[in-house]
Amino acid sequence: MINQTLKIEYNHESRTVPHIDIYLQSNRFFVLCALTLLLSISRFATISAEAETPEEKGMRIALQASESNEGFGDFSAELTMVIRDRRGGESTRQMRFKVLEVPDDGDKSLFVFDQPRDVKGTALLTHAHINAPDDQWLYLPALKKVKRISASERSGSFMGSEFAYEDMRAGEVAEYTYKYLREEPCGDLTCTVIEQYPLDEKSGYSKKVIWQDTEELRSWKMELYDRKESHLKTLTFANYKQHVDKYWRAEEQTMENHLTGATTVLEWTEFEFGKDLEESEFTQTALRRIR
Questions:
Q1: What is the pTM of this model?
Q2: DSSP code for 171
């Protein structure tokens, strides 16, 4: 160690402080600064976590889940829709699906029915929006007519299934307010449980309760409540697969209607990402050319 005097210039006046161990003092100073910084960070993190309201935490998790799914560009898939009534009656339909990601706005998506023959060519086109109501059109080939789905019709059944028209598009984060409820086990995973409240007064739902795993932010269950706040339906997700090393998609979605006892299952296959889809494929004019 080095003992020497320390010369300090203060207000243009030099002063000498004798017998200060510069090495020891400087190291103590930096250690003290480091400890103070660590304590401050720890305290700030604790205060921040405690200060975050359930509404803020719910919104933060929703934003994280949305951001984890951004950047896919476009993809397509094949679907089988199985509709079952409470007595065990069953009908099956085959569909195609494609979606185009739109920067700074909601996605554009298209469902097209291929089978059975009586619904072949029927198509649902959706233009989702971040800060405005979504646009939806249904093409009916028998009438050669494009029908706009009004806001009041979006809570209606989509082609006789337990899915409503508003269920057939990805909701944007800005369309809801949120409230974090808790964390709990869900199978082998841990899930957050969050309530979503739609801002659209024409929505068929008063709220949704969603279970998402904390690891990949995948949705595993969603309870849907009607405008009277009764538990109307439950949507469950299964058989997740990861695509292009990033994007998780459930290969099975089951919607159960607790009022009617009916269920609808969507089985997704043949996912393809990066198909270079064009915006011209997602127009009302394109609906009339579907084969």
A1: 0.81
A2: P
